[in-house]
Amino acid sequence: MTAASDLAFDPWDPAFVADPYPAYAELRARGRVLYYEPSDQWLVPHHADVSALLRDRRLGRTYRHRFTHEDFGRTPPPPEHEPFHVLNDHGMLDLEPPDHTRIRRLVSKAFTPRTVERLKPYVHRLANELVAALVAQGGGDLLADVAEPLPVAVIAEMLGIPEQDRDRLRPWSADICGMYELNPPQETAAKAVRASVEFSQYLRELIAIRRAEPGEDLISGLIAAHDEGDRLTEQEMISTAVLLLNAGHEATVNATANGWWALFRHPEQLAALRADHSLVPSAVEELMRYDTPLQLFERWVLDEIEIDGTTIPRGAEIAMLFGSANHDPQVFTAPGRLDLARPDNPHISFSAGIHYCIGAPLARMELAASMRALLEQAPALHLTAEPLRRPNFVMRGLQGLSVRVG
User: Fold this and answer.
1) Pairwise CA distance, residues 101 & 105, whole Å
2) Residue 108 has what pLDDT?
3) In the chain, what is the straight-line distance between the N-terminal and C-terminal CA atoms, in Å?
4) How far is CA 158 from CA 45, 87, 108, 243, 336, in A?
5) Does the residue 281 lie in any domain?
6) Range of the domain at 270
7) Residue 191 maps to a domain
8) What pLDDT is stored for residue 250 in this prediction?
9) What's 33's domain CATH number?
10) How many domains does the chain have?
11) CA-CA distance, 115 to 66, in Å (whole number)?
12) 81: closest CA among 225, 188, 214?
């Protein structure tokens, strides 16, 4: 067995969280799959393997469609965590076919390219308004003033959540997402459970309102979506709405802040971007690759697999390291170099296979809109203090990003 415990990989070490990429290089040099005892997971650091495993049906986001906890050799979650798991386990990200296929097909009927395109004027107007406010006050916290409010408002607008309720969304989301870190402590779990209960109850009441008075919003679309007589259950609608909110802004918030922090550290690339705004689309892709907002994605081994001569048994858990895969020199020339004009950029920040991010077009639109607004309205934007990293490893982000506009 090849182990990772003697390497620099340590998701709970602030130094590692600050810069995990050297440790990833060690992992890739050591092998294609390594067992990590502290989290009882098999780490997969190479791009080719991660890409293939994301499409491998011998792995699953859940095992409950085929096995009981006992059959799979796993301990059921504590009963007090049930509200979180009811919410989480009915979302399509944590389901496998046939349930995943059915729910994603129904959600896709509401979450159409036309729905996303219809939001474009709103996204660009809001991005310009947020940046204008930042400029008017001479600077501020780019994360709190622009990166956070934009995607939260957009997904809330899409779902049809009234403006007066939107300030509750980000705290609920942050508390729920705390459970996706490795070995979350009990306090984190308690916050996630409380947020799951409160958010679910709020959405249940909103769904009842939309049933009586449908609108043009996504929740009304989810209520109306049907296929051959099949519809989403109320719990599936609630779980879908929470998933779209969490996935629809957590990664975008972190990608925005991580991206600008990277730009400030590479002034020559920032200067090139300021000189040529046509680089924005490729810059968005490169910044998501360079400092990946979602570092790790987990899958259960449903049927025994073999990776490079190592047998991974049924019941094991695989941790695919997106951040490492996005820095694999077998795929990316000079992966440690930020290159906003990188011509070939097959990063996997939006995952792949049946769980490819349904909101990727919306995320790209938001990232490009805020970047263009900042380039146009704040061409002399600069950092005033080195930011602090959030202690989270899986969802990689900053605590803030203090800037001045002139």
Assistant:
1) 6
2) 84
3) 55
4) 36, 20, 14, 13, 37
5) yes
6) 14-404
7) yes
8) 83
9) 1.10.630.10
10) 1
11) 35
12) 188
Helices (H), 31-98: 47-53, 82-89
The C-alpha torsion from 381 through 386 and 391 to 393, rounded to 10°, is 60
SS3 at position 368: helix
What pLDDT does residue 2 have? 60
8 Å CB contact between 320 and 307? no
Q: How far apart are CA 261 and CA 133, in angstroms?
A: 20
- Which tokens hold the place of 18? 């600050």
Phi and psi at residue 403, to the nearest 5°: -135, 160
CA 338 to chain centre: 21
CB 4, CB 11: distance < 8 Å: no
pLDDT at position 118: 87
Q: Is residue 3 part of a domain?
A: no
Task: Output the pLDDT for position 5.
Answer: 58
1 domain residue, yes or no? no
pLDDT of residue 316: 97
Q: Is 344 helix (H, G, I), strand (E, B) or coil?
A: coil
Which residue is it, tokens 């998933």? 243
User: What pLDDT is attached to residue 113?
Assistant: 82
Token readout for 283 is 């810059």
For 67-121, how does the pLDDT look when each residue is reduced to its tens digit (9 = 90+)?
999 999 999 999 999 999 999 999 998 999 999 999 898 888 877 888 888 889 9
Task: Please tell me the distance from the alpha carbon of residue 190 to that of residue 202, in angstroms, as a whole number.
Answer: 19
Cα(306)–Cα(310) distance, rounded to whole angstroms? Answer: 5
What is the predicted pLDDT for the residue at 66? 93
Pair type for strands 310-312 and 305-307:
antiparallel
Per DSSP, the three-state class of 182 is: coil
**Token pair in block for residue 93:** 């990200």
User: Which residue reads 């077009």 in tokens?
Assistant: 361
Dihedral pair phi/psi, residue 304, rounded to 5°: -45, 135
Helix axes 234-265, 280-290, angle to 10 degrees: 100
Q: What is the pLDDT of residue 57?
A: 94
pTM given for the model: 0.92
Tokens of 58: 């011998």
Distance between CA 297 and CA 142 in Å, rounded? 27
C-alpha closest to that of 342 among 284, 294, 271, 295: 284
What parts of the chain have a pLDDT lower than 50? Answer: none
